[in-house]
Structure formats: structure tokens, C-alpha cells
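Lab meeting, action items carried over

1. Structure of the four-component assembly. Owner: GW. Status: complete.
Input record:
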Amino acid sequence: MKQMRIEDYGFKIGRYPKGELNKITDVYGVKVGHFTVDTGRNKTGVTVIIPCEDNPFVTKLTAASHIINGYGKSTGLMQINELGVIESPIFLTNTLNIGRVHDAAVEHMIMRCDRENLEIKSYNPIVCECNDAYLNDIAHRVVGAKEVFSAYDASVVDFTEGDVGAGKGMSCHQLKGGIGSASRIVRIEDISYTIGVLVLSNHGSLEDFLISGQPYGTKIKAIQDTACEIEKGSIIVVVATDLPLSDRQLGRLIKRVPIGLAKTGSYMGHGSGEVAIGFTTKNRVPRKGNYKIDQIQDSNLDGPFHALAEAVEEAVLNSMICSDRTEGFDGNVRESLKSYI
Amino acid sequence: MKQMRIEDYGFKIGRYPKGELNKITDVYGVKVGHFTVDTGRNKTGVTVIIPCEDNPFVTKLTAASHIINGYGKSTGLMQINELGVIESPIFLTNTLNIGRVHDAAVEHMIMRCDRENLEIKSYNPIVCECNDAYLNDIAHRVVGAKEVFSAYDASVVDFTEGDVGAGKGMSCHQLKGGIGSASRIVRIEDISYTIGVLVLSNHGSLEDFLISGQPYGTKIKAIQDTACEIEKGSIIVVVATDLPLSDRQLGRLIKRVPIGLAKTGSYMGHGSGEVAIGFTTKNRVPRKGNYKIDQIQDSNLDGPFHALAEAVEEAVLNSMICSDRTEGFDGNVRESLKSYI
Amino acid sequence: MKQMRIEDYGFKIGRYPKGELNKITDVYGVKVGHFTVDTGRNKTGVTVIIPCEDNPFVTKLTAASHIINGYGKSTGLMQINELGVIESPIFLTNTLNIGRVHDAAVEHMIMRCDRENLEIKSYNPIVCECNDAYLNDIAHRVVGAKEVFSAYDASVVDFTEGDVGAGKGMSCHQLKGGIGSASRIVRIEDISYTIGVLVLSNHGSLEDFLISGQPYGTKIKAIQDTACEIEKGSIIVVVATDLPLSDRQLGRLIKRVPIGLAKTGSYMGHGSGEVAIGFTTKNRVPRKGNYKIDQIQDSNLDGPFHALAEAVEEAVLNSMICSDRTEGFDGNVRESLKSYI
Amino acid sequence: MKQMRIEDYGFKIGRYPKGELNKITDVYGVKVGHFTVDTGRNKTGVTVIIPCEDNPFVTKLTAASHIINGYGKSTGLMQINELGVIESPIFLTNTLNIGRVHDAAVEHMIMRCDRENLEIKSYNPIVCECNDAYLNDIAHRVVGAKEVFSAYDASVVDFTEGDVGAGKGMSCHQLKGGIGSASRIVRIEDISYTIGVLVLSNHGSLEDFLISGQPYGTKIKAIQDTACEIEKGSIIVVVATDLPLSDRQLGRLIKRVPIGLAKTGSYMGHGSGEVAIGFTTKNRVPRKGNYKIDQIQDSNLDGPFHALAEAVEEAVLNSMICSDRTEGFDGNVRESLKSYI
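Predicted assembly:
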């Protein structure tokens, strides 16, 4: 059954046209897979964003990362910025499970390279996290190789959003958060390009929550009688595009992620580690020889900046509206945004 | 006559209490002075933010700078981040006038040190700029030593906002912009502190302009029949506080400036060089000997983050609502926000 | 038996006085432990630097990290720079073993907090790596919880250097590298402080290798008839001190690490991920309430800068001279510097 | 008369082949001009590095900047890193003269654009500085438009080194410093490229000074009986190349500048603001339309890294050996390195 998304509730976020699915996978070659752990003790999981159909370790993708709030534990970012590429899928999980997912990612690529008859002596897996300890017994680290491989194998174009995969135990604006996505189309020099966004949302306080500039958070708070929590928990934003951008230009693009977050009411709290990663499928780096990177004029970035911010805003809202009410560890509960709209 | 500010029009921005004047000068010791050039050819000027009553070159103030969009020409930022202090007032002017104002700032401090019998062989003046070329013949660089000294001498606590000083020729969301200010009070460990903000606004497109989340820009556009301009022009945000913060913590604080900008509809356009500078009057660095820097817990920064974003949002609105319609160079005109509210 | 170190061969590196052991552990509270894996297939291991006697997760240590060459996979760095503290020991291992050591570090701290009756829902383990694939079958990831715990339990003040722990499989200037250490004493405002350095060396080409400015590399090359290899493999430099420094000042200090590396002939090759981490035992951050950070004048940093560079230079040489000839995976061999001096 | 350079004294720095002149101008299109002020009160000047024959404001050059020690006042750096290009010549002068040279640079480009019928409403002049206050009455700012224009007009390929232009009043390792240059040739994928370096040297203490690893500083100190001064004063390093590099790759290249500095005995003292700027003439950015940036493999950067460090080392030595003994302001004197070799 098709999930109801924020646009299905009548909210129009921004003015740029959307991609076919309005998901990150509107960028050709991108797939997303989840594995969800849903037990009494654990509400958690892993989500993998696969950036291209072939092996990214062989022909790397131009990429950039941007640390908005460094209070987080994501791995692999510094090499992205040094070399301007990603060579791995992007894995999302919970904070204390970073190590096990990292090792599973290494194992997965070693096996793949063995099959493809490639030597692998070094590898930079990108593993990002949010802290789902409110609903999940986080010290009990239940995501390992089996779960990561399953998420990988389950990857599809038309993936599920909400309380799935790494999003299972996440909270957003004191409601249920998780995985959300959106996409936008921009035209530059008469060619159309796609910008896709996927978020793992786990941030924000209820009081600040906005939809299309409207203070839904204060309204919901009046109903729920919720105590104010400090904003914490992080958000990870993955941006895919087929725009001809250099790593520097991708860096500029993803620096606009906070605009979208601010529009839904984030104040980038102290405890909210916020990280953005962007890649383009357009500029692949070959293994050998000189090569050329296609670039648009920087003055043509205004459209992409605007479109990106819109997609981030909508992806956060989708992560909430697609999530169901969840009762987790220690009796903690997060209501769904659905109940209030 | 008292200027009408955005709160006087019935808009309540955020929920933190405001300082007495609701200006950056609510932080004790801070003063602001303007010199305005208003001729047929030139609509421009200089604004100086004086951070403390005594000489900042002698007892420097803990500070940080943050480059949101580096497409700008501000001077003095790299030394702020290397040493964690400012030793000069902060001067604001137009893009091509940076050199002359820089030299005037040097001259001013040399004269002051001569009077105070201090040796000065090096000095780091902070000069920031926005591009007022729409209303000002920017190639004609009319702000020099006389104008800078006059601005300095004119500095007061209850300063004017709007189309004055460096703000004379600036545009914001395709309306008249310029100098705006606001302040907020936060309580930490039972003590009240002030966060003050001053902006030189010169960014944004009309279509995106928001007040309290409401799309005033599209409404005004319907009236004005304005062509959409790309966002460009820059914004400078100066943050003063008396909070006990380290330079690192000030850096975290001013990284939240984009939240306030996003709330009024900025997308941090390609052409919009955006720079934030923050300082605290609480932690002064003596000339000799070891010293101690007072710090709050980072986990207590959530209040300041929130308050700062509110103050930035309100300061941008004040910069617009306090500005009059201006006819400038080449027949270009910016209407005042006042006409539409 | 006491290891022969570079000073025992008559080389005097620099002019600052050394600490008692001339090791990082001259900084009070610091200990170092190794676990070495030495099989036909694997030459690798783990080394842990424990920064203080009590639990760093409770009272964190002021710290900084500096990425010289981001072609590496170290974890935990971004949070160090965001918050200015470390809350974990520093673990060193090989590149592909990052994930398993990360998870072991998490497990270790969870167990410790359980014993100390502390809640732990988030944790930032610092795990750094070099690539020992020349001597070690790196895809076979043999360092897990047992090995990490053993290294921790084996920690001492007067630790072994050379081909031990994480250093077992490392190469330096095409000779055997690994763990090396040194320390220096600086006097500031009439008080003596210690700067200690520990390196995991795995970088450099033979041709460029220098001792005290003398081209030993070219001499050895003439004897060995070695093919020139490109510089790769990384170096991790851990700096401990009891100087009253802020996180910003520690950042400035460790930015001088490349001077020491250059003195032994490093050119910071493309493939050589180079990371420095520094912490001070002097400025601990309490769990609650405002606090003060002691700082020296930045103008007093010249001595520490000089002393640090000397210690880095000597630590690299100690990592080589303390290592024995090692025959590793695939028949690859690294000779010891001892054979040529 | 040809100047005697360090190679003419029998010192061979490094192993890479040199360009024809062994100067930055071996990169085709680059020229250098000086204007020297040599009065009783003032020993100072301005040096301009012109990056290309046509107007860089029109077709900008791919570029990067790197701040080694931010205790300096250079202007224009942040825009280089945001946009990855330079659009102006690079001007060198003394610390307090930054403002006047900045304004002269603006004036010069406005005049040029007028002549070439180009609109100019914004411009990012790069003006870098060292502090020559030991030999120059720095508060007396004698370099203005006339001097800057003269330097520009005097630009040539085979330029003078030593105590000329901005180098007139500079000191290096407590001897006379100033302008120095060197170049190296690297081969990548069977094509030869040039890397050229120009330094404005004004750093270092005598005690630490090295030539080819030999402690010349301590020898000279024994003769001179010089008091030890703390290292201060800065160095600016400009790197030109015709290598096909992206801005990110140029950034990696110029991060190796400290290796060359360390080889001559720099410890990057607290007071020594150190800045590197690099550009390539190979990748020009057109005014309109998409474009392609040529890049080499990052794994081919090892040669350029090595060659760059060699050129920096030699350029520093040339800046000293080409300088004459100078008696300056207040009776201060710097001896020439020539006297001791």
C-alpha cells in the first residue's frame, strides 16, 4: 500500500517541480534498502543508500560532506573532503552501532571485490548515525553483518519511508521521526537535472515545529500537553544529484541544508549532530589517467540551492508523516504526526 | 523621533524576552555609529560597532567568525579564528570601499595608541561589506578617513536603524534594506545574559520573503509586479554578548545565524557573501600572564542558539521596516517595506 | 631489557630538555597498552593511549584534532573539534579493523560505566589507523574485543616501542616502523610543563629519510638497492600535555606536527593520511555548572611549538630504531633501521 | 647584472629538475613587478604577481588558498576558497599598508575594465602582507596607488629577488629576507609541467636556520653573537603551475608548503602569519556556460608535492642570499646571508 506523504495531506512545500517518485531515487542509479529491528528491547535498524549501479569502489563518485554540528560520530567524512569522492554506499544506523556496521560494510565490499576479482587493501565506508536511545536500548547493539547485508539486498527504487531501517527508533520534534525523502527538478542551460534528498530525522523540539511556516508544534503541544525537551539527537541528510558539479560546488550545495531544517523549526541544538553528504552521479572518477569534471557556472547554483532547501524541508515532513506511533524501550512512546493532521 | 520597528507593527518574533532597547547595544559597553553619504551619485556610508568602552587593542575580546558563504571581501576574519579575539571595532561599508575604510581604521587606531602612549606595529581591523551597487555608484569610492572618523565619533547606545551608514544603499528581498538590530535575554544557571545582533542586510529575493512564516513577499510581489531577481548581495551579522563563552562556543553560537536568515526567506544565494562575527565582553584577554576563560556548559547553549536565531530574524525585519524608500544611482529605486504593511 | 632508542645511538634531536622517560607517559596520568597479533598471516595489533587515571567519559579532557592529510579513516575527530574535548582513550589499529575496534571501545566503556553506576547512551570513541597491508593480511580482521581489552589491561607508564601493538605491521620510510614516543619540557612564566608525543609511523620513502638533517635514506638505499616506493600509509600523532591550553591553543600546537615529520623526510604523500590529536590533562571539563579554562598567552606558544616539533621528530626515529626486521604476509619484508646505524 | 642565487653558491636543493629561470615566471604567462621604497624612514614596497597575460577578472584562474597560521591580515582568501578561482593579481606589501594597496588594486582594475569596456561592480583583490616594522616605520604608510601602478607597469618575466618591492624591509631567520623564487618540472602521464614558487620571507630565528639540513644558523650565530629573537613576522608563499588541477587538488598541493619551510628551519612561530596561495593557468573558468576542469589522478600528486616542497625551500634561501645588508628605521640592521657563505 502506498504511504500517505505530506503532499497527500495537501501541503505544498516550495515551488520547484518534483521528480517522478519525489524521492532520492529519482536520481538514476540510486537505490535504498532497509533492515528494521523491532523487538521489545530494540527499535532500531540500518538503512543503506546505494549511489550507483556499478561498484563505487572502482569508479568513484564526486562528493562532498558538510558538518553542520559536529556533535556526532559519523565515519568516512574526512576522506570525502580530502579526495572529493565517495567509494562506498552510505549506511545509516544508531550511534553505538557504528562500529559493527562499519565492519559489516568492510566485509561486504571485500566480498564484492573478491567476486569482481579486484584487489582491496583500503576502503572508506561512510556510516552515519543518530541516537535512538529514547525508544531503543542502544547499549544492546543488534545491527551486525547479517542485518547490513539484508538491507543491501533489500534495496529498491521505490523504498518505504518513516519508522523503518535506521529510522525505526528515531524521534523528530518530539514526535515519531525516521526516514524521509523528496526530490526536485531544476533546469540549467536548458537541461533538466534532479536533486534528491534522504533524511534520517531525529532532532527538534515540538514547540518549534512548523509546517509551511505554520506553528503546528504549539498546536500539537496544546493537545498533547508535552513537556518541552531540549533539542537533541541529530539529523543526517544525504543529497544525490545528476548535476554536473565539482566537489567544491557540491559542498556549496549541501551547505544550504540548514535552510530546509530551519523551515521545519530546527534550531540545530547543541546535542544535535548534523551532517550532510552530497554526491553526483554525473562526475565519476576513473581509476587511471587524467580526466575532466563537468561543471555548471556557480552563478547557476541559485536554483539548485533553492530546490535543495525545499527537498530537505519536505523530506523531514515525510519522515514524520510516514511514521507510525511507536512504543519503545522503557515504555517511552512517540506519537505519529498523522494523529494531529 | 523614535523609529517604528517590526514589533511596533504587531509582529512578535520568537519567545525569548528582549533587552531594554532591543538592540545590540543592550550588551553593556557596545556602541554604534554611522556616517551616511547621500548624494545623487552615491547612496552609501560606513557603520562602526564599538565593542567596549576601553581600547580593544589593549585588552582584546574573545571572539569568533563564521563564513556562511565566502563570496565576500571582509577583512580580518582569519586572525579572529586563529587567536580567538578581536582587537578592533567592526566597520561596515560597501564592497569596493574596503581598502579605504581599512586604512582609515588603521589610522584611527594609530592615533588612539599615540594618545594612550601605546606602541602599535601591527593591527587587525575588521572591515565587512555588502554590495550596494544597485543604488550606489560603487566604483566611486567616497568613504575615507573623514567619514570613518565621523562615524566613530557619532557612536551612541540608542542608534538609528534602516537606510543609514553602511545601510544607506543596501537592498533586502528586493525592498530597501540596511542596518537592523535586536536583542534577547537568556538565563543560564540563574543568571541573565544578553545576546545582541546587528545586521547589514543586502540579500534575498522578494518572492521568498517571510514575516513570522507568512509569505509577505508573494503578496507584495502581486502589488508591485516586480521581476524576480536572483538573490545576491550579502549579509553581515555582528553578534555581541556578555555570556561566558570561549571562542569555540562563540563559533557554535554564530553558526546558528542561518536559522534566523532562513526564517525571513533567505536561501543563501550564490552571490550572497554571508559572514557572521561574534564577540563576548565577558572574557577579555590581558596583555601579559596566564588567564582564565569563563565558560558555560555546552549543553546550556540551546537557549542562546534559539535566542540568537530569533534576534537575527528580527534584526533583518528591523533593517527593512526602518528604511525609507530610496531612489538611487541610475534611477534605481527600492521601496520600503513600510508601504506594504 | 631496555630498548635502545635513537638517543642511545648518539643522535641528539633538538635542544629542549626531555622528560624522565622521554615518552608520552611523562605527562602525568597517561598510560599506553599494546596487544600484538603475530602470526604467519597477520602482523598487526592494537595500541591504546589512556589519557587520565579516572574515567574520561565523566570529566572530559580539553582536546583538539588536526587533519594534515584527510586520506584516512580515523573516527571521532569531528566531535573533538565541535566540543573541544575527548571522552575516550585513543585506540590505534589497522585501516580495515576500525569497525571492530570501535565496537570494542564502545563495549569497554559501557562495561566501565556499568561498574561505576553511570548512564551511557552516547559515546565518541577515538579510533585511528594506518594501513599495514604490506606486512599484514589486512582483509583478515583479527583485532576484536578480546584484543582491545587486553591492550587496555596491559597499559603501563614505561611502555614498549617499535613493532608492537598497532605498530606490528607498519612501515616507515620503507624500513620497519611502528610505535615511537618522545617528550620535552618547556618553561612558561617560571613553571615547567611536559609535552609528550606518541606516533604510529607508517609513511615516507627511503630516499627522503633524514636523521638530524643527514640523508641516511640515500645511504641505506645504496646498500639495500631498494626500489623507490611512493610515499603512502599514514601517520597518527598523539600529543599529550599538562600545559594550560584551550582547545584552540591545542589546535595551534598540533598544527606544528608536520614540522617534525618534514625533519625526518616526509613529504606528506597523497596516500598518507595524516592525523594529529592533542589533549591536555590540565583543563578538565566538569559534568555540570560553569567552569574556567586556564590559558597561557598565545605569545608563549613558541616554546611549545618548537618542543613539539622536536618530540615528533624523535618519536618517528624511535618508532624505527626500536623495531626489528619483520617478515610478513606474502613474503614481504621490512628491514630494521638498526641494521644500518 | 645577474644575481647570485643559492645554487650559484653550490647548494643543490632537492632532486627535481628546475625550470629555465628557476623562478615562478617559468609558468607561462606569469610576470612579477616591484616598486621599492627606500628612504631613511621607510624600507618597504609592493610586489605584484600577475597570473596571466589577459584579464583575470574576465576569465578567472582555478585557485586555492591555505592558511597555515592565521595570525595575518591578507585579504581575498575566503572568496578564493568559496569559488575556487582568483580574479586579480596578487599584491604583496607590509601589514599596515594593506588598505591603501587594496584600494589601489581596485582602482587599477576599474581603469582596466573601463579600457576593455567591461562592467565591474564587485572585485576581489588579493593583498597579502608581512610585517617589516623592524626595518621600516610601518605606521607611515607610503605605498599607495602610484607605487602599486608602478609595480604593475614594471612587471617582467626575469624579475629581481631579495630586498626589493615588498621584500625591501623584511627579515628572515634574523638575517635580511624578502622576495625569493624557484621552480621545478614534474612529469605526469608523459607530459612535463612547471611548478613555480615566489615567497615573501619574513620569518624564523637564526638559531634554527638550515641550508640543506646543515645548521648554518648556529654557525652564523657564533660569529654574529646575535640575541635570540622569537620567530615572528610571517611568510607569504605564492604557487603558480600549469598542471591540470582542480581547486581541491591545488589546495592539497599548497598544504605541502610547510615542508619546505621546515627544511630551512621554520617552526611556524605564533607571531608568524603564514599563508599560501596557488593557482593554475591550465584551468580557466569562462564567463558563461558549462565548462570542464582537467584533472590528474590524485595519486599522481606525489611528484608535485615533492617538487613544491623543494621549490619552497629554495625560494626561501634565494630570498636571503639575493638580499643585501640593510640598515633601516631606528638604526636596526639586518646582515645579508651572503656575508656568511
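2. GW to write a short summary for the group page. Key points so far: The two ends of chain C are 20 Å apart (CA to CA). Chain C touches chain D through 31 residues (CB under 8 Å).
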